[in-house]
Amino acid sequence: MNDEKVDSSKLIVDGTAVGEAAVDSQLSTINSQLAWQRFKKNRPAVLSAWFLVALLLAIVAWPLLLKTTGGSFAHIHNPNQLSDAQFLPPGAQHWFGTDVHGRDVFSRVLFGAQVSLLVGVVGTLVSLVIGVLWGAVAGYAGGRVDGFLMRTVDVLYSLPSIIFVIVLITTLGELLKHSHLVANSPALAKQIRVMLLFVGLGAISWLTMARIVRGQVLTLRTRAFVEASRVLGARPWRILARHIIPNIFGVVITYLALTMPAIILYESFLSFLGLGVEPPMASWGTLIAEGVGQINPIRVYWWLIVFPGGVLVTTLLALNFLGDGLRDAWDVKSK
Amino acid sequence: MYFLKRLAFAVPLLLVISALAFVLVRLAPGGPFDRDRAPASPEIENNLKTKYHLDEPVWKQYGRYLGDLAHGDFGVSLKYRNHNVNDIIAQGLPVSMSLGVLAFGFAMAGGLTVGFITAARRGRWADYTGSFLAMLVVCVPGFVLAPLLILIFAVKLQWLPVALWDSPWHMILPVIALGLYFAGKVARLTREGMLNAMQSEFVTAARAKGLAENKLLFKHAFRIAVLPVVSYSGPMLADLLTGSFIVENIFQIPGIGVFLVNSSLNRDYTVVVGLALLYAVLLVGLNLVVDFAYTLLDPRVKYE
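Above: the input entities. Below: the structure tokens describing the complete assembly.
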């Protein structure tokens, strides 16, 4: 903060650059206001945003409700409570029916949502940090650094990623199982395993983000306000952090909204294969896998697939509509 | 010339991928021999390890592997020791290929049609329903769609078989389950491409000359609109061929996908590396083919 103030006394040296810089920064505020107005006019996107807010509220409120009411209501809806009421179809007591162990599917879906959404958020944040740093450094440094960083991205793009995820997850999982942690505190080891899964999913989803951020940085670094700050002697890291990264905010937000459904999908896919979260913890993927396991020619337990699947699909749909809406509002070009 | 360079670049790329897979699977604790039914005596285990050279340092093993690979030999499956990886690929790949190619055809036919109609009827109800459906199917993962299709068409209505891969009737549900997502993607790409093309100058010029709207759509706009679809078709075909193991799993189709998950759980080193390489070759090769097709379709495109 301080050195900038000292520097600004020398601003007279290059009056035009500073003037342009001020206009630039004003333009970007106006731009974001316009984007916000455009976004508000997009019905599906706004509706999706409200749906996601409602889902979040339900996820937070439901466990609290169970805790405060207590008694038989909480007992019936405890997601881990086994009972004899197996395979009840949806009804007044069990809104989404019950599963093979008589557990309430509605509760399981909401508690599974915690895991699925947390994966989405953590994974997206990981991909955000790696992607933005990678792309910003490549775009700003240019030259050989750029070449090396972007060729790495090209190579990673042509990896069959799903194979590496499967190999990586089984490898890390086994390593963890054999480490001392499991013997000392199994609960902690379990949490670390889940965190590894979250971080791993983020770590394979940053490639597109890096490419997009690099493209944006390439155009930004020639703009007047960046040059002005370079002339004033600001360090590259400072320019990146204060001038460039705030200006790619819109693009980044948009791709975050589009990365999140991809990561949620990845997790449910791995959980479906039995490589994701382990029981008794559940995510939407494991719930669907359980439903698929119950398919038989005699009785149709459709609610075991339709409800977890439906909530998953609706969430993905809402995130995609939201992402599309943000992209249109910010007028982001994907290439 | 450009394509020769790309081809030359593919070789070190595949080496890197195979080395990565090779080292990664070996990092995991446990080996292919310690999960057999009865715990083998240490002597037997050691003998097995010596026989398959697992007691050597990794770089030596890798060199040996590359040497065999140069002769087209992917090695012997360490779990099912009377099968070699070449056999597994030869058995499973045709099935996975036909599933993938059929799903590709389905996705292209469905996606191009829906995309074309929604663009031609822009702003009308056909556009809204079509666009919404395209968005919806993109959000329905195969492991949700496949069981729903089975429940509706096989269990409830009993029109189609539940699983397996025997007759054309068996193929309908898996192909839809695998291809519908990509149909949605293609539809969205086509619609966007058509709308862009309709705004371009040569279309305006053709319209000004009095060309009928239908002809305009088919002969001019559509040709430009398929370009993004073409460039997507390479990764898409690769995804279809490599990503089918959920569908293969649910419908119990004897493809290659079943081996992928099992082999990495079983530490079946040779199978994991072999399949990873196979998929990488498919991915790199298909991208190359697509880029080449691109130069044929669009004379403006030149690669340096």
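Note for the figure: DSSP finds twelve helices and no strands in chain B.
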